[in-house]
DNA sequence: TATTGTTATACTCTATAACTATA
DNA sequence: TATAGTTATAGAGTATAACAATA
């Protein structure tokens, strides 16, 4: 298992998995900004500080990526009515459309690589993957 | 699944999974050199050019990491008897001992995070992970 | 006093280009 | 001519430090 994990965690694997899904929108979303966009999609409206926690980077990094995604028209930043220091990040209709396309292409890539797996193995893997991911973020 | 995959592929996840396993040898093996060491353990004796393919980086990067690991006494570089241009990388006894320790600590971390999983789920996950990793490298 | 967000800066890691030596 | 390995250089991405504004 160690070998499989080392392979999966390699930087090149991330590029390899993201590249085909991001290709059509490569000019506005790259492999480092996509995690921010994905987190806003899942947890928004959310502040940049909380995004940083989910994405696992420093606040300054999340802030810069969010600014870039705002410039690209994929998300908006509105003052948090409950805290004037914070900005709440939220997807624009264009952002929602872009992420829908990315997810659908990513799913196609993944499903293709599992096409010849025995029945049930893929479902069990996805189940385990979700458990493992949850364990990491707790 | 997309969310779980984004989490797993995050740079911070790699650090989080490797950190406890590498801590005792942090002065000689870090998270970017470990994949090189692991590949030498699995495929050695092997040339730097082939290591680069397995690790998914450029030749120059693999070469530098290998040089550092040699300086640390974890691997040796001997001229390939079949090709005087190439150097064959191979673990030293110390290198084997170090990687044994890393793998055992990594296994402990992973097993701990799966401790409360239902019977069979962990095995199915590992099976799927290995299949998925193989699909990525082909 | 602590926290949010931002900017300037330095650091790490990587790829590209150029070179030598060998096939 | 092509490939293995190395070194110098530039680029991308990140964290640290310092700042203003608000809790």
Question: Key terms for this structure?
Answer:
homodimer; 138 residues; alpha+beta; Arc Repressor Mutant, subunit A; three-stranded antiparallel sheet; 12% strand; DNA-binding
Measure the end-to-end span of chain A: 22 Å
Second rung of CATH, namely the architecture of chain A: Orthogonal Bundle
Can you identify the CATH class of chain A?
Answer: Mainly Alpha
Largest sheet of chain A: 3 strands, antiparallel
- The topology string of helices and strands of chain A comes to HHHEHHEEHH
Q: In which range does the helix fraction of chain A lie? A: 55-70%
**What are the low-pLDDT stretches of chain A, counting only 5+ consecutive residues below 50?**
none
The number of domains of chain A: 1
> Overall 3D geometry of chain A?
globular
* Spatial strand arrangement across the major sheet of chain A: 1-3-2
* Mean of residue pLDDT values of chain A: 95
Question: Do you know the CATH topology of chain A?
Answer: Arc Repressor Mutant, subunit A
For CATH, the homologous superfamily of chain A is named as: Winged helix-like DNA-binding domain superfamily/Winged helix DNA-binding domain
Report the sheet-strand fraction of chain A: 5-15%
Q: What kind of assembly state do the chains in view correspond to?
A: homodimer
Protein chain pair with the most extensive contact, residues per chain: A-B, 47 and 47 residues
Number of strands of chain A: 3
Number of helices of chain A: 7
Radius of gyration of chain A (Å): 17 Å
Structural classification of chain A: alpha+beta
């Amino acid at each position: 298992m160690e070998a499989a994990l080392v392979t999966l965690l390699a930087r090149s694997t991330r590029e390899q998995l993201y590249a085909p899904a991001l290709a059509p929108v490569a000019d506005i979303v790259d492999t480092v900004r996509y995690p921010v966009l994905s987190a806003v999609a899942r947890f928004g409206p959310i502040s940049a500080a909380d995004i940083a926690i989910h994405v696992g980077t420093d606040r300054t990094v999340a802030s810069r990526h969010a600014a870039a995604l705002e410039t690209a028209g994929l998300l908006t930043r509105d003052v948090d009515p409950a805290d004037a220091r914070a900005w709440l990040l939220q997807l624009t209709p264009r952002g929602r459309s872009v992420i829908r396309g990315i997810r659908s292409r990513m799913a196609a890539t993944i499903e293709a690589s599992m096409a010849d797996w025995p029945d049930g193995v893929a479902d069990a893997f996805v189940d385990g993957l979700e458990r493992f991911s949850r364990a990491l973020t707790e």
